[in-house]
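so ive been stuck on this for like two days lol. basically i have the seq below and the ligand is magnesium ion, smiles is in there too. i just want the complex predicted, nothing fancy, no docking runs or whatever. if the output looks off dont worry ill sanity check it later, just need somthing to start from for the group meeting slides
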Amino acid sequence: MSMQIGIVGKPNVGKSTFFNAATDAHAEIANYPFTTIDANRGVMYVSKPCPCKQFNVKCTPHNSNCIDGTRFVPIEAIDVAGLVPDACKGRGLGNKFLDDLRQAHAFIHIVDASGSADAEGNPCGLGKYDPILDVDFLEKEITYWMNDIIKKSWEIIARRCELEGKKIEAMLSEKLTGLGIGEQHIYSAIKKVGVDESNPSRWTDEELISFSEYIRKISKPMLIAFNKCDIATDEQMIKADEIRKKGYIVVPTSAESELALSNAAKKGLIYYKPGDSDFKILKESELNEKQIKALEYIRSHVLQKFGCTGIQKCIEEAVKMLDLIVVYPVEDETHLTDKNGRILPDAHFVKKGSTAKDLAYKVHTDLGDHFIRAIDARTKRIIGADHELKDGDVIRIVSDA
Ligand SMILES: Nc1nc2c(ncn2[C@@H]2O[C@H](COP(=O)(O)OP(=O)(O)OP(=O)(O)O)[C@@H](O)[C@H]2O)c(=O)[nH]1
Ligand SMILES: [Mg+2]
């Protein structure tokens, strides 16, 4: 299963624009709330130096792309409907659609820095809304969504804990595996909130909420895309610091600019790559005055001011926040191939600290179950199941599957 990142926020902030700019997809975009109803899924890419350069081979990537020695490793993006205050009580589209994000490993929260949409996402005029409010409300709605998931099985869990002496961590982690939560997380959440683990039925609603909030923070780390930075004033952009004080990574973004630049680049009108700090006009004669003005606006109000459009930066920061490294499993450590002869075919994200055996499981359950040993293709050394992988490792897994 690939890594997934959920794009969340209130309606009309630019989630689908960000999604389209980051993935090459064509989700509907419009200046009113609830344009998106069903989730959109697409693939974003993170760039890494490809081992093909160091090994001096020509790779034939399968699950990723390689351009001139830079590997573009896929990560899935999910764009969902907008959340409104009290979605947990059924307002707006409610929060049931968040179930699409159960598997997400992290969230990118799109916040309208220009403050031009109210709490429900209705256009309200530039600077009329305080974006800080968006951060607080979204935390709450996601916490309540998790709380609902936990509450669904709470009575049964409490009974089995109290009457059968079962461990709450074990039972809860079973219910929450879809959220990527392990027993250790649950145990530390219990300690943090200071509740009695042997008597769950005595937990108050408030304690259960605090518990859910802690679970949210560890299971879905979140960063803020401070969007529409192209129209936000300097005064509005300073609010990013206030959000940073809450412990968030905040990246100024202009999803609309990124979309315009990538579309122009695709048509060959300009030279521009995601993440670049500038672009070059290639076919000036094919651009009308309005288009040139729009491009110049992006250059002066986004690229020169913030260094980039922020979209690629968000993706890269999310990967950093998740502590991910990229490893390359192969079946033949001499030729660096898979069974079809493809060279350095796949690039996989794994958590830093993952072992050779974790990688085996990531490739295939059978490979993990029948793991014998692994071989580091660089050193040709045999490595054991518990050997910790490094970023960029090329690994052969030997199994009797
Ligand atoms: N100026 C500016 N406008 C933007 C930017 N990103 C998005 N928009 C505009 O904001 C409006 C809403 O964009 P969408 O991408 O549809 O927003 P959404 O969050 O997906 O909205 P819902 O699906 O309704 O929740 C559109 O008019 C976009 O063109 C940006 O970076 N700058
Ligand atoms: Mg949308």
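The mean pLDDT is 94. Residues 15-16, 35-36, 79 surround magnesium ion (ligand 2) (CB under 6 Å).
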